[in-house]
Amino acid sequence: MSLFTASSALFFFANFVGIFWHVGIASDPPGHSSIAGLVSNILGKFLPAMFCAYVMYDKMGGRRLLRGLTAQVEKTVLWLGACWVGALTNYTLDFIPISRLTGHDLQQQPGAKAALAIIVIVLFVIVVKQIWFFRQEGRLLKYLKLYALFVGGIVICLLLPGLNLRIHHYILALLLLPGTSMQTRPSLLYQGLLVGLFINGIARWGFDPLLQTGASLQGDAQHGSPLPVIRAPEINLGEALWTANFTWATPPAPRFDGISVLVNDVERFRTYFDDGEGSETSFLWERKPELRHNEYFRFAYMEGTQTWDYTKAGKWNTEGEWTEMKAGPSKVRARELEGSEVIKHKR
């Protein structure tokens, strides 16, 4: 369609709607337990996303870049191609070892600091080129004032107590889009990429807040907490039933008052150490011999209702053999399966 339409509005909004639903339903859908639930989730994001799309088109450079543009091939390859690259960021940009721009995460992720340095250098070069183009058009002062306002707002956010600034990639797209409001080939590429990043951010994650508490910002990052010491399980391979009985060492500090167990990344067991005679001191897992698949076990200390870092996975394979978990924490967090139950949940 992009090759055969001269309407900038039709080009922008048709592609925005199509790519938004593709990301939300197919390429990077949010967590869901049913198709109806997924459609409801995406519908809830779609209307506010369309309002943002109108603002991006009418007020943030979309109309100025695309209106009257007759370079159909360049528009298709550069703008639309880059938009797909940004929208499919879970595939196209997944190799970049950065998930959150926080000091804690940058320390945890190998290669994150080098990747961030490269991104900053590339952005600096792009910004310098765009400043030159704005100067040539005589619009530089207007946009310098706009970005000074953005920087001032970010500084205020950084100074607010108890809250952390989190520039999600949909927010980054909104911040940078005004800098693409000129008809140049680089601007076609940059604007398409930014619109794609916005689509992916909203369709997958929704409108996450710009300011977040430390707990909400943690996400799936590791806490750096002590890990349970798990003894080798007692395995019984009966003809009708296989069992594996897990026990653990005493926790290193009194504040750790319970233990949680994930089986195949779903929480199946939790108990507290101070429940007296009713307290569980082991975890028994059963399975039928004919179930020919590996099972993976992770363990974490609890502090009240807070679950800390899980161990890496230990494997109980199809032959009934146990493989010890490697040293260090896992990034996984417990997930829910429809109909799944936690075996023990005391207190």
From TrEMBL:
- InterPro entries per the UniProt record, alphabetical: CRISP-LCCL_domain
Q: Which UniProt keywords apply?
A: Membrane, Transmembrane, Transmembrane helix
Q: Which residues cross the membrane?
A: 36-57, 77-93, 113-134, 146-168, 188-207
Q: Does the keyword Transmembrane apply?
A: yes
Q: Which PANTHER family match?
A: LCCL DOMAIN PROTEIN (AFU_ORTHOLOGUE AFUA_5G02970), LCCL DOMAIN PROTEIN (AFU_ORTHOLOGUE AFUA_5G08630)
Q: What is this protein called?
A: LCCL domain-containing protein
* Protein source organism: Verticillium dahliae
